[in-house]
Amino acid sequence: MTILPLTFSCQERETPYTTWTAYNGDTGSSSYSALDQINRDTVEDLEVAWIYNSGDQDDIDFAFAASQANPIIIGRTLYITTPALKVVAIDAGTGEELWRFDPFRDGRAAGVNRGVMYWEDGSDRRILFSAGSNLYALEAGTGELVQEFGEGGSVDLREGLGRDPGLISVSASSPGVIHKDLVIMGSTVSEGTSAAPGHIRAYNVRSGEMAWIFHTVPQPGEEGYETWAPNAWQQAGGANNWAGMSLDSEREVVYVPTGSAAPDFYTPGTRGDGSHLYANTILALDATTGEKIWHYQVLPHDLWDYDLPAPPNLVTVEIDGDRVDALAQVTKQGYVFVLDRETGDPLFPIEERPVPQSHIEGEETWPTQKFPVKPEPFVRQVLTEEDLTNRTPEAREYALERFREMNYEGIYTPIGTLPTLFYPGTRGGANWGGASFDPETGMLYVNANEIGNIFSLREVKEPVSGPVTAAARGERLYLATCSSCHGSPGRREPSQFPSLANVSGRISAEVIEEVIVNGRGIMPPFPQLTSEERDAIIEYLFAVNEEGELPPAEDIPADGELVTVGHAVDVAYQLFLDQEGYPATSPPWGSLNAIDLNSGALVWKVPLGEYEELTAQGVPITGTQNLGGSMVTAGGLIFIAAAEDERFRAFDKETGEVLWDFRLPGGGHATPATYLVDGRQYIAIAVAGGSRVGTPKGDAYIAFRLPE
């Protein structure tokens, strides 16, 4: 095993934005570098410096497995996580593996990880990261577990939430932040009726003991308790920070964006009909104590899975001649909320406007939502027939027919029993790649999707009396637990999640049970389901017909009738596509956007990604679906992969012109990083494909540099 030299120069410590020691470059999530060896004049000469393959190909058989990790670089050592969630230390100059740690030595990896954290105190240097339900501490020089941290080197994130740890699923897909001797963590939880609460917690980085907790689902006597159902603090979940957070070290304030309350899309029951504070909220917490300083709820009573998808960028902007320390929070809806870092007050006007109301019995839609006037939205906010595809006459006719049969009343159309169009959709607008910010110019750069999703609800029925077959019971369990992601097993439209139609002959009962119990890829485990309940769900999946329905004898007990007791998701996460599988809206389908945060103006928008077969037909570049983030540099460049076409590009940050591109051996659905080794600038990116875009899976990291 190699012992790593972990050293810093004084220059690295003192010069801002010249190192990359935290997720997205620094704790302010700028994704900016002051390095400029690679610039507008030299970028065309970039060449591959090294390629590292983790060997995870045999371990990533789940459809969405991917490495979304943004590397960190300490001295000349680059730290990554692989698609199978191993942590690897690499010589940043040569790509040589120095050590690796596998948290799943005795089982298959489950979950997604976007990077690691680093802490040091003298000779005590540690890498902290999450995999499965555990937060680990490793010795940075050897990869060995730090035995005094938690129980033998790890802390169980399911503990300390006020729920039975054996019955909840909790992990952490994004890194937290390090504040002095604390590691502050968010969490990823399931999105169904049995989800864990997404409380924010800080742990002592030396011992692993929990130092403080902030309840995002408020408890009795706490502010916001009245905005949930009375029993929500014991039963409801979500309101979690899965996307990462940002830290203002000087103010000692951590800024935490949260997601929606669970379950998604439909709220009667444990959520209640209130605003669900602190879901969909930007929280400013004292990083030392966890006490709330201020909060700003971006979206009350979320019915659309419009989680805040990325850490806020900590920025300084000039408003009416005054320089103001602020944060910029991008959203799936295509908005940027710019708030004063001290007070949480918006720096640009935000309007409260009435929104459509739900027609589902028992659902109380929030009457208004917030619409920022500035900065300008970076995706379309209203979709009309004029905005549908003109790619071919047949595609347009197909899109028009689908559009006219769907329920669509704008960006906040509540889901109903008819097919309902969510636009820009659950994938964005912005997603977890977030934005990069140039502190020299005040420009924010954010990539976006403009495709749309289709959802609908179906009635959940229970028998008035009489026996219930295992398959019929499994249907009710499936609707309550699985359908929010997978929808009806009979659906055939392309979706962001695997179809469970016709599982007989494709997937064995044993494999289905193993995935339910342990999770796989981005799917969490469901420990709350008993073996009998798992058997019932499997029975249902093998009995359901091609239309997603049980035969009548299974559906209705012989001596009873069914009564409607609620609703569950029937169609879920279908993409709004034409008959040939291209987006049914007019381009751009994916874009890169430049926003001046001083004025709020959208300065430029360019397509991100290309369908080469359409370009060959004379179609202007359309942009593609994209997941991953951007990096902006003092060399005048924005680096981003993310797109479905597997290309890594450098854009001119002033004009949006592509100055360099490189075909990767797979999808680069991650944020790149840049660093200096031996006086030479490198740019590194994870190339593992998969994710939810569906590009071929791999296990590579690639670094680029200029020729000597």
Model description:
- The protein has 9 helices and 41 strands.
- With 708 residues, the protein is mainly β.
- The protein has a domain at 455-575: Cytochrome Bc1 Complex, Chain D, domain 2.
- A hairpin with a 4-residue loop joins strand 33 (590-596) and strand 34.
- Helix 4 (470-481) packs across helix 7 (531-543).
- The longest helix has 13 residues, at 393-405.
Examine the secondary-structure arrangement and name the CATH architecture of the domain at 455-575: Orthogonal Bundle
Count of helical stretches? 9
Shape: globular
Report the mean per-residue pLDDT as an integer.
Answer: 88
In short:
With about 700 residues, the protein is mainly beta. Helix content is about 10%, strand content about 30%.
Describe the structure using short key phrases.
9 helices, 4-stranded antiparallel beta sheet, 10% helix, globular, disordered N terminus, Cytochrome Bc1 Complex, Chain D, domain 2, single chain, mainly beta, 5-stranded mixed beta sheet, 708 residues
Detail the topology: elements first, then pairings.
Blueprint: H1 10-14, E1 32-33, E2 47-53, E3 72-74, E4 77-81, E5 87-91, E6 97-101, E7 117-121, E8 124-131, E9 134-139, E10 154-156, E11 170-171, E12 177-179, E13 182-185, E14 188-189, E15 200-204, E16 210-214, H2 232-235, E17 237-238, E18 246-248, E19 253-257, E20 261-262, E21 281-286, E22 292-297, E23 313-319, E24 322-330, E25 336-340, E26 350-354, E27 368-372, H3 393-405, E28 420-422, E29 435-438, E30 443-449, E31 453-463, H4 470-481, H5 483-486, H6 509-518, H7 531-543, H8 552-555, E32 562-575, E33 590-596, E34 601-607, H9 612-616, E35 630-633, E36 637-640, E37 647-652, E38 658-663, E39 673-677, E40 680-687, E41 700-705
Parallel strand pairs: 1-35
Antiparallel strand pairs: 2-41, 3-4, 4-5, 5-6, 7-8, 8-9, 9-10, 11-14, 12-13, 13-15, 15-16, 17-20, 18-19, 19-21, 21-22, 23-24, 24-25, 26-27, 28-31, 29-30, 30-33, 31-32, 33-34, 35-36, 36-37, 37-38, 39-40, 40-41
